[in-house]
User: Fold these one by one.
Assistant:
Number 1:
Amino acid sequence: MTAPTPVRTAPRAAPHLAGGPAEAGRRAPLLLGVRHHGPGSARAVRAALDAAGPRVVLIEGPPEGDALVALAGDEAMRPPVALLAHAVDDPGRAAFWPLAEFSPEWVAIRWALAHAVPVRFIDLPAANSLAQAAEAEEKTEAKAEEKAEERDEERDEEEAGGLRIDPLAVLAEAAGYDDPERWWEDVVEHREPGRAEDPLAPFEAVAEAMGALREEYGAGGDHRDLVREAHMRIQLRAARKEFGDEGVAVVCGAWHVPALTAKTTLAADRALLKGLPKVKAELTWVPWTHRRLARHSGYGAGIDSPGWYGHLFAAPDRPVERWLTKVAGLLREEDRTVSSAHVIEAVRLAETLAAVRGRPLAGLGETMDAVRAVMCEGSDVPLGLIRDRLVVGDVLGEVPDTAPAVPLQRDLTRLQKSLRLKPEALERQVDLDLRKETDTARSRLLHRLRLLGIGWGEPAAGRGSTGTFRESWRLRWEPELYVRVAEAGVWGTTVLSAATARAESGAASATALAEVTALAERCLLAELPDALPPVMRALADRAALDTDVAHLAQALPALARSLRYGDVRSTGTAALGDVAAGLAERICVGLPPACAGLDADGAAGMRKHLDSVHTAIGLLPENDGHGRGADLAGRWAGVLRTLAERDTVAGEIRGRAARLLLDDGRLAEDDAARFMGLALSPGTPPTDAAAWIEGFVGGASGGGLLLVHDERLLGLMDGWLTAVSPGSFTDVLPLLRRTFSAYEPGVRRTLGELVRRGPGAGGPAEPVAAAPGFGPGLDEARADAVLPVLHLLLGTVPETGPALDHAQAPTEVTR
Amino acid sequence: MTVPENAEATETTATSAPADGEVLRPHAEDAFADELKALAAADDRQRPARWRLSPWAVATYLLGGTLPDGTVITPKYVGPRRIVEVAVTTLATDRALLLLGVPGTAKTWVSEHLAAAVSGDSTLLVQGTAGTPEEAVRYGWNYARLLAHGPSREALVPSPVMRAMSEGLTARVEELTRIPADVQDSLITVLSEKTLPVPELGQEVQAVGGFNLIATANDRDRGVNELSSALRRRFNTVVLPLPATPEAEVDIVSRRVGQIGRALDLPAGPEGLDEIRRVVTVFRELRDGLTADGRTKLKSPSGTLSTAEAISVVTHGLALAAHFGDGVLRPGDVAAGILGAVVRDPAADRVIWQEYIETVVRERDGWKDFYRACREVTA
């Protein structure tokens, strides 16, 4: 219902224009109000500049950038790039002015360079705007905390030096359009069908409309806009004096056009600019990406479809046909059969759809609908691919090497100085003691740089053990690392922010679960608390969707380790604990089915997972108060019992599960003997039985000692082994050999002696045979004498025992 | 997505189709004759050849709206506007339209109303089954005549498709993927050459302007008789989605359950609504692979878990409650039904289901009973 308002008020706005539309083109400076990142605007700007041929081009942007303009003409400069301003003493305070191929500002710069016309940026200097931002930040911080959201928004706006509202969006909405760029296309581009017509006409129309809007909304409620506009007016005045009224062209946000024609006095403008805070600011070009253009940053609001805009700008004619051909090409690359007939039908559908929707030309919405119906069989999956690869696009800008250093380099230099870590080409080893503050900071820096792909330090090999407070690094600074730093400048202006951004994007793009867990570990090492939540989220998502228990089992130990690391470095790990507990739950559910029907190799692999998961679950906090980890150990024991009892599970895993239960004291020795009896009963194929033995007592985990101390188990095994038929014996021999050869020589010898002595000599009543030189059996009285000291050593209180001990114990302790 | 139910349609029968009197379910063009007439009167936009309405008016007929003269057009399809626009536009570009979707997403309903609005006739229908013969798509013979007079145009029995071609109307094919592949392929000539040869007579029937075809097919049946790519190319595909919001789905389920329950004389009380909401939540979460709060991802089981299945789970639960319980729908009554709907593949789906109840259901407030019931039936 607001639709007609601006249109109706347009005539009233006309007086704002100096002299009225007809004369404006002649005498007044050329004011080109644009939509930032609008391909339509960009084309119109080029046409207008070509037609008017100004002697100077003024562009909305920080004046400190004037010196950098020449670089825009460099061969190696490829948009999207951004003009980056940052405070020298605080690189974290920065603002970007991103420019794409299809940005009107970029087109204007290129036009000026090609025609050897000077370019001047006329916005408020970055020195002021950065300082203003800082001031505003402090002010708002002083205010109530509850306005946190608002503050963020505000800060974004300020950093961007952008607009509060998208004025074209307001007009487009008023006209019933959802996409401002479409409205611009429909209204501005198609309003000049005869090319011979005045190329300045659209800008006059826009200026009129903006005048009407400004009457309605005032300055958009932003005092800083007024200050900026005052600065622009002063600059414009200076340029007009120098080059004359006709020689000046201004490219700025359409919103500011009415303000530039407003009749104010120089003194009033100066007064507005008086007493502005100032910081030392530096500017440089940094490479930008389409993906970052799609985010809300830079000039006002971000744009959703940079790829599509780029296409609109680059396509010489028939944009819809060319676009759909591009889409077909992408789909063919992805092995979908898309013929030319599909393209033809899609074009027809898109155009008819546009007609049904009452639009002069098919836009992104219509073409995507047509692609879905014609080429993708109604599915949204390939459409997502198109959105990602074409509509947004993977374009990465390039900046010549001659561009000034990025703030990231500055931040790094500062850190290197304060941490006394010199970048030296000579390789050297550094040992860090993580209990010292400086060393922790050094370690953090090196880990963060590694995350950013700046391989200055490599963790020294062999010292990967996690429990220590020591860390060894090999440092070596090579010249190409400067290039790496420059590249990493895309991610942020400080080492911390860049590493955080990098880790977040890594989490989003990681495909394998183990990748994300490794990333989580690195985030903890590099102490990136802000990156941890997104990484954890990605981790939880991957874990939920991964159907392979082995992957989950691989991920869990790293997480458990990270938890311990977190404790060492006093990082918050609550989220990590939650994710780890969830992962463990999933393993508990998925493990039993995954263990069925495995071959020998698969079983051996799974057994390793079983071991590592068992260790990891032991490391997890038992109950973290969320109810999540509640009785995890109990559930895990249940899973182990299921595994030990289930016949379809491979022998090695069954044996291992029984052993783990036994070690934890969750399986009575009688039960263990029963399991072994079942596994080694005559009905079981000998190879299965041998595998069970390997699982139960195999490995270096003290399996031999178990046999030495429990003669019943040894007897069972001995009985089974002698009953194996000679034919099968050769089958099981390699397995058994592998099991027993892993034992320590002493254990092997004892076992051999036990077996030689023969079974049944004493039964369980006589646990250990007498060693040579010792009497048989146990002298209980002498053995008891050891107990008090043992208790003292272990710090336990003797509970029950013969009355005799009670009498003696206190004296022993006091002594 | 809500499908105005048959029961409502029958209620309007008395007023809008008095000629048929006791017809259980009148055709769309009869049931909504008034709306179509009002639309045609108000419609001043360009109409493709032999279309009763302009594409814009057809879209309005389906999506509902108010005409300048105050006539209220009821929405026939509640769902994304985009889908209806693409469907109508497809028909206008003389490409055939394929409506895909899981059961219960109003494919047939939409196709009927499209045909009614475009051609004023939704009766040219071929029902696809595994036994659909070629005659149903091309033409058959009146054998008495054929034997008596030999092959002639009079002895020919045209199929609905043939009639639509000669009269410039919209034909409909239901369950296209159920039709055997060789019969499907006889549509290729019809759709690409717009002609149907009759070699016995040495003649052909050429389609006149306005002819088009709307087919419906079940997403999950794709494997039954997958369309050949030659045929597929002739269709623009529109996928009808499942209900977008939980509220809409709960509404559909409870309405439908109420109707079925009345038919089966089951006592359905509003106290069952919580349980219905729970069933819908479980179905939606598993279907979407995401919990309702959007925080946790889940694996999706192999079953469709469509709204139609949720309806049958609740109905089944109601029957259990009525005959063996205290008449109130309780978690235990629906748990078994849900298990049956979710676990289609005993190995993979069971793990997914267990993960779901252990990681999501167990920790949800107020779901304790349900968790216990699920554990009970799953164990």
Note: Chain B has two domains: 6-239, 246-378.
Number 2:
Amino acid sequence: MAGVLLSAKGIKIRFGGVVAADGIDLDVLEGENLAIIGPNGAGKTTFLNISTGYLRPQAGTINFLGQNITAQLPRTITKLGIARAFQIPQLFLDQTVMENMLISAASRQGRPSGFQALSRLPDVPEMERLLDLVGVSSYAQRKARELPEGQRKLVDISLALALKPRLLLMDEPTSGVASSEKLEIMDILTTALAKEKVTSVFVEHDMDMVERYANRVAVWNVGKIQKVGTPAEVLADPKVREQVIGI
Amino acid sequence: MAGRIKPITAAAAIFFLVSAVAPLFVSSWATLFALILAKGVVVLGIVLLLQAGQVSFGHAMFFAVGAYTAAFWGRYVGGGDIVLFLVLGAISSTVSGLIVGLFVVRYRDIFFGMLNLAFSMVLWSLLEKMYPYTNGADGIRVARPSLLGFSFTPETFQYLILYISLLTAIAAFYGVQRYLESPLGHMLRAIKSNETRLEYLGTSARRVLLVGYVISAFLGGIGGTLVAMIQQIATPEFGYWTKSGEFVFIAILGGGAHAFGAFAGAAMFECVRFYAAAHLADSWQLILGVVLIVIILYAPNGLIGLRQRYRQSGLGGS
């Protein structure tokens, strides 16, 4: 049985009268693709924000590989092996895609102080390989702001992969992408994650994507986990269908 | 094409060459070019911070620290040497930059600018009010220093300090370009476009900005030491907010996209001031103001952005 990579216990947080996490308990297993589903405002992104140190929970703990990472800084958590991709791609828009990747590579190695030109770092071939794996190598020398939305998403994920993470948290990897491109992007993504041996957690609203690409699904509702199981189990549950999916 | 020299690098090379040669034909240009080069070094520091999207309205404090380091040495120790002054100016401004930087890099945008302004005004007040030590508004005269034990006549010294300024400017220009191309330089630019992402890549944006800030202070101090030696005086005005504004003005004039912008801006500024002051003694600031308005309206990327604008208009070649 796969080991536990990330373990959340009793996570609670509220924003004024809104309960975003009300005793969340969740284990993320090594090697899986865990989908988080739920209606808007259920607390899905809040969980990612807490797991990556952007928010401090009012109660509960998060352990990663047995180490307590609750309320650590995002950069500290990143260095431990948790990377994040965003719903709205977070790129360095005035720099080329390759420069974005090399900044990520230099960050991972923690050696940004040298005077060697970024473009001459020994990581260039590895970054080319990653961009190729994710299908955006043809954009390597283009400024990030010139890219279409779908490609920005993939570059955003490539930046995270350049960190060589153990766990990648993705917030709606196909939101804002044309329906016709969603399958292609998810195919590329899951192939890349498998090849790089990266465990993933992704927030998703499209049940077709969940059914197709997740190994397990956690259903969020009003700050609580309503159900965890395989996609078939979860999507067949009448309560989930009624309250979360709206069928 | 690989190995091809970029036009802007060629323009910088020509500028440095002109700075070395032109004053040999017109002696009054020696001091003018020395000032252009020294101020260009200071403005390089402003250009560095602009990469991170930050504008310091108080960078003259490091300029004053560099200048007063030389002045205090002459007053309290006696004598002085160009190399010694430059080394001491570099050390004092770097240390000051580190101390002030630890506070200011926690802030961004207008708060960053204003906090710098506040620190610089504190220094200015100290220089003004501590009369027994600083001579107040009169400032401290900086005696003409020697170079490695050799003394020079005023005529020779103006050329010596020109070439020292030139060497310093070339070294600073090269160093800043290397820095901006390095991972740390790219991270500095990344602060401008997406600081949050930088943190999520595992890098401390504050630390990156602090390194940039300290380098910027170092350049400010070196420039201040040079100007103190060129003008042979250091006054509190060196640290006043109008001086900080002047450096920001020059950076906008030249353009912040490349290190050469600092020197292009300094050349334009000092030449306009030199000639406008000679012909319109009471209204040279008006001329500078008009120049800045024209630049902002027609060349928002500064003088070094003009070529790109020219090419985009379809008038230029490839």
Note: Chain A has a mean pLDDT of 88.
Number 3:
Amino acid sequence: MNIIVPIKQVPDLVEELEIDSSGKALDTEWLKYKVNEFDDHALEEALLQKEENGGTVTAIAIDGDDIDKALYAAAAKGADRVIKITGLGDNPSNHEAARAMANAIQGIDYDMIFTGVQAVDDRDGQMAILMAHYLSLPHVSVVTSVEVSGGTATVQKEYSGGVIAEFEVQLPAVMGIQAASETPRYVPVARVRRAMRGTDLEEVSAGDVSVGGSTEVNRMFKPESGQGAEMISGSTEDIASKIVSLIKG
Amino acid sequence: MDEMTRVIFRNFPTWMQVMFYAVAFATIAFFLYGFWLRYKKYRKGRDSGRFNNVAGRFFKALGKMTTNSTVMKRDAYAGVAHWMIFWGFIVLLIGTAIVAIDHDFLHLIFGIQILKGTFYLWFSLFMDLFGVLFIVGLFMMLFRRGRKPDKLDYTRVDRDPEEYNRKGFATDDRIFTWLLIVIAITGFFIEATRIAADGFPEFEKWSFAGYALATLIDSVGALNPIHMAIWWIHGVIVLVFIAYIPYSKAMHMLVDFANLMFTEDDAVQNLPRVTEEKMKEGMGYLKLQDFTWKELMDFDSCTKCGRCHVACPAKNSGAPLSPRDLILDMRTYADSTIGKSEWFGQTFSANGNGKAKKEPLIAGDVIKTETLWSCTTCMACVEACPVGIEHLTTIVNLRRTLVDEGDMEDMLQDALMNIGDYGNSFGKPERMRAKWTKDLDFKIKDARKEEVEYLWFVGDYASFDARMQDMTRKVATIFNKIGLDFGILYEGEKNAGNDVRRIGEEGLYEMLAEDNIAAFEEAQFKEIFTTDPHSFNTIKNEYPDFGGEYTIHHYTGLLCKLIDEGKLKVSDKLKGVKVTYHDPCYLGRYNGETSAPRKLLEAVGVELVEMPRNKENSFCCGAGGGRIWMDDSGLEERPSEMRIKEALSLGDIQYFIIACPKDYAMYSDAVKTSGNEGKIAVRDIIELIEEAL
């Protein structure tokens, strides 16, 4: 079972976030990055599948802040190939990123694509969907369990209200992973260092990523607090008359 | 005076003498073969770098052996009994050697005899005296064993009764003791029958025990054949014993001397590094050949005395770890794979986590994962061991294997990830490290920007744990008040790594040590101090291996020094207050600092009532070695709660004094969870200083 895992670096939310002078994006100067938590689960699920059924795991990412570190960590955890897509500008849209991913994995033999169901930095949740679209593959999202048998996979999807739905999907397919069946593993520093020395970090060009359109942030801001609330107290009559006077202005 | 001697091989025909020598030589060959088997086994281990200063090591071990000091420690009864058996054995061995040299060498070759006259009289006296001591010691041991002390209980804490069989251990114990008893008693009977058969010569009264026994058996008659029969029984049993030595518990007489000789006083204070090669192929131990020969010898050195078993906080709290059993399991496993030497051993199932498909994993099956993670690295086992076993190097090396395979619980994993990402286990951003200083009414110098005399290494818990920050500010305020020139590294400091290393995450430890040393190098200071005994240990003992050599004080030591120099003045204001003091493992046991905190307590006037387990024998709070980041809800009773009970057993004690940030967190909780709130208050020693200023 060969699995491709697109991963992404997102700002570490432990740090306090600042909006930059444009008012449309985060101030990246002091940001620390870490792997998107859902992508970490996607990678873990892929590695668990590999351990159970054999095959390979390929981690792939768009070039960006600290991305080498993330890819080496993926290799240290057990990814067989790690690929960095270059040639895209800063902050490509998810449409462009999905196009670039779809281009980059041409020529790689795969049965499944696992990626995080969403990323904490854009809450777009469309990466898996867009890739499925560009690759003309079936797609299931919010996946919490994958069981492969022959050319199909039985996947579970978490519905709201604690209900789970089970699907059978023809492979190859793209899945948006909500949670791996085990907590993403710890990778010891020695292994990361070993991976940094011994792993071939492949680079491929993004290719043609022209897409019809995409979204743009108008304004980014922190929740603005309102005027505050006034609690009206007193007897029922007092309260009633106060409300009346407020309505009358 | 020439007649004052005894006849060797009295009344023995020549063929009988020849037969005895033939059997004796065969026995010695068998003994040497067993000895060689052991040697071959240890040769399979890695080099341990312990062949420096061999003469010094020899005499140090000789001192421990001849005085039995390590056996006497905290168990006078067993110590005295062992001393009697030890010296009884040695004197009787020397005596027999003198007989052999005199008879087989001096007499046969040079035709002279020294074992006669006055020398023979003194010889007789000494042999009888130590023979009696020998027997008394052995019976003391039998009596002790009969009372079934916890130490000698072979029940396992990590496996169900049907999962193991340890009857071999008990058999070996019995064979060992009874062989020695029978040898000693038959020896006296040979002497008695000879004295009686010779008609009670006056000079034989020097053999006081044999002479007395002779008067009792005189009426039996047929003394000459009885003498010969007992001689043979004695001789054969002695030969059986010699043959038995290298295959049994009796081997401790030889191996344990070597183990004491090659043990290192700072073996666990300064853990072995992982070699470059090992780092490349996966740290930790996977096969027996990965162990050093000293570690392989550790496994064979254990006499099952159980001192570590009863001292261990994990075992005492119901965790599935007994340091004794860990060592014995490793011995059994080594015996089954790289060379069998023990005849009477144990069997146990080595499929701990059900992973044993083909070869059992050492870390995971032979020694269960949960066993390895139960260790608090408090060092009580190593300190208690009378024969120099270094349990902790084995435990940490096996933990390194678990870490390499990611075999750990989520909470610990999170802590390691946080330390890797932010340099602290709390998962707080680096720049928050010095946030505790905000509430001070003065500014602490930034040692990275200006020169200070003392660099304060604050540590994670003192910096981030809300319960501890008050104490940290008190330390700062006092040092500021007395005008001590000190500074901190602010966000330049990272977790010191002491416990990260003991978890087995050596790669992360190296990173932390290198980063902290780099920060130290950029700062300007003369000496370091810290309130954290864990940071104190690794900076003092382990950073030098990474190129960072510093003088570091624990704050208790520094406060003492400042009092001595007259820079800190305290009064005995707290006179009449009864307190007890808990020695932190990494201060008292690891680094021998037990006097400074006590001097401080004396200076502030409190009355110190010691807990039964104090100083080097202190009982761990349960937080060390990364346990503070692991789930302790499965324990029957937390070590910290047991410790609070120990303090309460002293009667009316107001304060439970600690000198370690982790202890403050652990014991404040334990007072509450054990339902003793209001009965005793946990206080940092700095609070007493503050009150007595």
Note: The first strand of chain A starts at residue 3 and ends at 7.
Number 4:
Amino acid sequence: MEIIKIERKVLAKNDAIASEIRGKFEENGVFAINMVSSPGSGKTSLVEKIIENFSGRVNISVIEGDVQTDLDAQRVSAYNVPVVQIITNGGCHLEANLVNDSLKNLDLVQTDLLIIENVGNLVCPAGYDLGEDMKVVVISVTEGDDKPLKYPKMFINSKVLVINKTDLLPYVNCKIEQLKQNALKINPALQVFEVSCTSGEGVGKFCDFLESSI
Amino acid sequence: MHELSLAQNIIETVKQNVTAGELGKVREVIVEVGAFSGVVADSLKFSFEAINAGTELKNAVMKIIDIPFCLRCIDCGNETSTEIPMLLCSICGSSNTQILSGDELRVKELKIEEE
């Protein structure tokens, strides 16, 4: 049999579009984060808190990714920031071409910080570059301290870990030190922040970090 | 479950690398799948076959080469493979490490039946 050498990444096309997006961000001075987590960890609540914190200081645009409904976009638009909803219709993650298309509906020149809220899923979004500056993985204490060991790829590919719902720590069987230890075993370079979107505790520190990165 | 879209990407790559006349002669598509690529090899194969059923690629079989996770510690020099991919050296505990393999998801080669 004849052998044809290929040596091509399966996601080469996605990566090429992600590079194109990255170029647009650089050109327009946009700092972009790709927020990933399991469903219900509080990504949208964190987006709301970030917007509140940066109100009047940093121009934020938001891309919301969901399998169905524009409920998240409705929530975010109440804060008077530009928001685009991507509905994947069953797709378990956002791909670069979806993000690239949605950029047509945003004014990048007027954007300092772009928050891409991915579909809630700790598996598939880990593999897809969306042109972001960093992936921020959010985990809530109700999910348990072993999550980083169960979904290592997401923690390897993220630069920042935000532990949310810390106000619930007294009521759940999650040891936050163990959670951090597990996460740092998987990826020692992770920057870790502890927040409660309900009480607001820790949100300021995370926002300070974001502001220094922009 | 994103294996279906990955299989579509692989099929597109196959089509880009053979002539229209060769398409029906593709017998094997060799794909490298790393231990933490996030892909279920069986689902990928299933998706590949499901898409190709009844097409010119119906006789093409996907062969998977599993690539283990391998980490090199820059401080102690050891190369290790842990079941859970960890960037912390399991021998000396250093965080000064480098991934050697395990995140691959790559079409390596095709085998075409010759005349």
Note: Strands of chain B lie at 26-34, 61-67, 70-73, 79-80, 97-101, 105-112.
